[in-house]
Amino acid sequence: MLSITGILLTAVTIAMLEVPALWKKRLKKELVLFSMILLLATGIGIVQSMHIPLPNPLDWVSSVYGPIGRLLDSVLN
Amino acid sequence: MKEKKEKQPQTSSQNLKEQALKEKSIMASLPDNLELIRQQLGNSSDIVIRQVGLPGEIAWAVVYTDGLADKQLVSEFILESAMLHDRVKEESKHDPASISPQLLASNVLAIGETKEISNFGQLFTSLLSGESVVLVDGHAAAITAGTRGWRDRGISETLTETVVRGPKEAFTETLRTNTAMIRRKIKDPNLWLETRQIGRVTGTEVSVMFIKGIAEDKVVEEVRIRLERIDIDGILESGYIEELIQDETYTPFPTIYNSERPDVVAAELLEGKIAILVDGTPMVLIVPALFVSFLHSAEDYYHRFDISTLIRILRYIGVFIALFGPSLYVAITTYHQEMIPTQLLYSLAAQREGIPFPAFIEAIMMEVAFEILREAGLRMPRSIGPAVSIVGTLVIGQAAVEAGIISAAMVIVVSTTAIASFVFPSYSLANTMRMLRFPLMGLAATFGLYGIIIGTFAIVLHVSSLRSFGVPYMGPFAPLIISDQKDAIFRMPHWAQVTRPKLMNRNNKRRQQKPASAKPKP
Amino acid sequence: MKLTEGLSGRQFALLAAYISIGDSMLVLPSIPANAAKQNAWISAIIGLAAGMIVVWLISAAGRLYPRMTLMQSSERLFGKWVGKAVSGCFVMYLFLSISAHTREIGDFMTTQMMPETPIQAIHIMYAGIMAMAARLGLETIARTGEFLFSFFLLFLIVFILFLIPEIKLNNLLPVWDGGLKPILRGSITMTAYPFMELAVLFMVIPGVRKPEVMRSNMVKGALFGGIVLLSIILLSILVLGPDYASRSIYPSYALAKKISIGKFFQRLEVILAFMWLLSSFIKSAVFFKVLQTAFAQTTGMRTDKGMELPFSMLLVFFALLISSNILDFHEVDQYWPYMDMTFSVILSLALLAAYAMRRSAAGRREELGHENKGKD
């Protein structure tokens, strides 16, 4: 519970620091992207702190490159 | 005549009136002029209006400020030369209208400096700077005569930047004396001086001095622009100007150097820097300023190069201790005890046995206590100052250790740090280190050495991003300029200082020709 | 959207050196040591040689459009959509790399130096300083590296000098006993981690003041980094012995612990920690700043400032996400080099090939044009 509040607080602080400048300069697209990444980070953080397992992106990488690695390994053995 | 919209509304009408007054021309009628002067100054008792002329003769008057104008000059060279002048006496009987202020200035007044003025703004500025104003009835113009002469502290020894070898003169609070002291060091016609008045209420005179041809024109122009931009009620000290023109406000590091020694200022001018002198304070600003300038002392150049280099290295070690001393102690004793050699570990552990506070709290308490003592020491009257500091440090510190509140090692660490911080020749940088020490201690207490290292990275990042009037702050270290290393940490002999610092000037690089060996041939 | 005002050649070389030493200084030596045992130093030499070829390749591709970032040049050479896809993949590659760096620092700290500290705290501090560095710009990062380089060099020399008394040349024997294959296995990571990851410099090249010195400086820096790594691997075997070196996760740290001169004992690990944190920090800072610009250009943002904080927050959690524990994380060494290879070797070749095709197409068009003109 404490960590979730911490994460939310951090997200809100970050938003407070950056959003006014972006709003003033009317950078809509940048604001959208900013919020997207911030939400993504907050989401992942909250899920992690609740100890719910999340898919690991490196698993996807290893499924792409793993076979090559194993192939080369067997060649060099 | 129009005022800018950003001014506060309640003073805008005042500003309009002030502006109107400034531009009002001097009137032809002498009594009107004098009446306006009296009114505007509220009949201040130190404004002297000396009217001359018998009825039937031309009437004229001298106005000056008692205390600011040299009364001897006024009576001898203005009043005496005009009143006893034959032609004036003649003309005033026959053709009074021909006695004009301009005539007085050109033929009659034997004073050294005169200037013609036409409006009240100039009149008041000159009057209140100590000059005398000569008004003649029937003429809508006036003459100012240079009669400045007030009492000031006089050229005395510098208290804050003492040296063992070298000149001991320091600047005074009078602008003209200071510019003269600099001129005495540099007798080159290319040493130029520009003066302006800054401060709507104080009207402080601020001068910019530089050596044309050595200083970069772009930087000089930038200085001019920034000074013009200042719009403030009063400038009382160069520190005001410093804060108003510096590159960045949110940094603990000073980006403008200051000194009260003419030899230091002259040396900086020779390197292509620009001096800003402010009337009323002996502290002269020097711009642009690099980090290394704050660790250089004038004495480095007067002693031999070997001892100077060693002392400079000592200063850098002092920087390290002053900045990292307490943090390293806190980090090592809290997180990384395995780094301490075993014997030392035993004694430290024994010392910390009875101490109720964790190392971090101990350190903070001691540091704060020390800062309080230091500030108090500055304000104490001379007679009890030393006694109280001895009491404070020795007795209280000793008592605290014996009472078991603080460990002796901490006292040692904090005092060493404090003394190391006095190694800085420049007070501004010492303040920076004082401030930075505390966040580092905080980082050390929470994250140990990792925290200190990350904190160091943050500091170096910050400092590497600073610029002083366009010049990168970390000077010859980053970007690395090898040819300037001869005067950064090391101080190579004078005959090896062939070029000026590269960052200060692109043209005029060579300082001197390589001299032939001075040894006499056997 | 300029990256910087202008890096000098020397600053560029230093960045290349820092990036090649980077995190490899700590995590690399155990891999060749594991694969080739006492012949790991031969792996290192082979890796260094191969790495130099990679550097040459990268700089050749970088030279094509020295004033354009990778995003711009890939759009130009591959067309808008393929170019954007390439850029997008590059962005993800960068982000995963930084996550990996951060995780490595966290793992090291929590296992070796500060076991009681929660790993998130380490990540937060690291991500925080990344954000600060990126906000201040590439030139500031370069200057920071320049300033701290003398300390790095000093510590490195001290480190090496004080290890020399501990060298046992016997540890190199028997030389070449397993055959070429284990040696080659060890050299893969040696080529990938220090040198292929220099691909990030694609985005730094536009910031160099004089593009003609880019190649020589990249080579100089990479060579320096490679030699440093080679020395560390060599020393690991000479001092620790092939057994210990292959079993330890952080051989360079174990090396530092071995240094003992008289009373000065255990102090010197800090020196290693500082060196490694510095090289890793500069590498990650460059990656992070480049990530900002790459992301901004790929998505068509008008400024590359402002996204640092969300990304660093994402970084903290990603660093936790990518692996459940330290052993698991080292599985990565099986396939990460090939990802590196994609973005360095394959990308460079693709860029060069596309450029060559464009040139010949343009050449043919010119010929036809000339022919037509001749007929007048």
From TrEMBL, chain A:
This is Uncharacterized protein. The chain crosses the membrane at residues 6-24, 31-52. Keywords: Membrane, Transmembrane, Transmembrane helix. The keyword Transmembrane helix applies. The keyword Transmembrane helix applies.
From TrEMBL, chain B:
Keywords: Membrane, Transmembrane, Transmembrane helix. One of its GO terms (biological process) is spore germination. The keyword Membrane applies. GO terms for cellular component: membrane. The keyword Transmembrane helix applies. Pfam families: GerA. The chain crosses the membrane at residues 274-295, 316-335, 384-401, 407-430, 442-464. InterPro entries: Spore_Ger, UPF0353/GerABKA_families. Residues 501-522 are annotated as: Disordered. Belongs to the GerABKA family. This is Spore germination protein. It comes from Paenibacillus paeoniae.
Automatic annotation (TrEMBL), chain C:
GO terms for biological process: spore germination. It is a multi-pass membrane protein. GO terms for cellular component: membrane. This is Spore gernimation protein. The keyword Transmembrane helix applies. It comes from Paenibacillus paeoniae. It comes from the Bacteria. InterPro entries: Spore_GerAB. Keywords: Germination, Membrane, Transmembrane, Transmembrane helix, Transport. Belongs to the amino acid-polyamine-organocation (APC) superfamily. Spore germination protein (SGP) (TC 2.A.3.9) family. It is found in: Membrane. Pfam families: Spore_permease (PF03845).
